[in-house]
Amino acid sequence: MSDETGWVNRVPDPNEKTHRTVRIWATMETELYLDINVPINIDDDEVHHFVQEGGINGEDMVADPDPFAGSWIWNDVMSVDKFDPTATDYSIEVLES
Q1: What is the distance between the alpha carbons of residues 95 and 8, in angstroms, rounded to a whole number?
Q2: pLDDT digits (tens, 9 = 90+) for 10-68
Q3: In angstroms, what is the C-alpha Rg of the chain?
């Protein structure tokens, strides 16, 4: 959004008359992995079935060390019923985007 009015430079401190509070929902997907040994004659479909049936203890999984592994799923923005003065102020970032 462009700011042809120059309002970005004059953003007031958030208050219930100048701002509203919205809630941002997101789901973080973290890539996890676990190296396991299986008998040499077991094919990948059998291993996949084993995993899908709960054969792996999720606590044994470790996070992928690649800092770019995983992703975010951004959900719809929801208005909050009441202005929250303690919410993080993103006024300038939103206006400059």
Answers
A1: 6
A2: 777 888 888 889 998 888 888 889 999 989 898 999 999 999 999 999 899 998 888 77
A3: 23
Q: Where are the alpha helices (DSSP H) in the chain?
A: 44-52, 91-96
At residue 54, what is the residue type?
A: G
Side chain identity at residue 95, one-letter code? L
Sign of the CA dihedral running 72, 76, 77, 82 = negative
Query: What is the pTM for the complete model shown?
Result: 0.53
- Residue 66 tokens read as 């690649």
Q: SS3 letters for 1-49?
A: CCCCCCHHHHCCCCCCCCCCCEEEEEEEECCEECCCCCCCCCCHHHHHH
- Closest to 56 in 3D by CA, of 64, 48, 68, 45: 48
d(CA 96, CA 38): 53
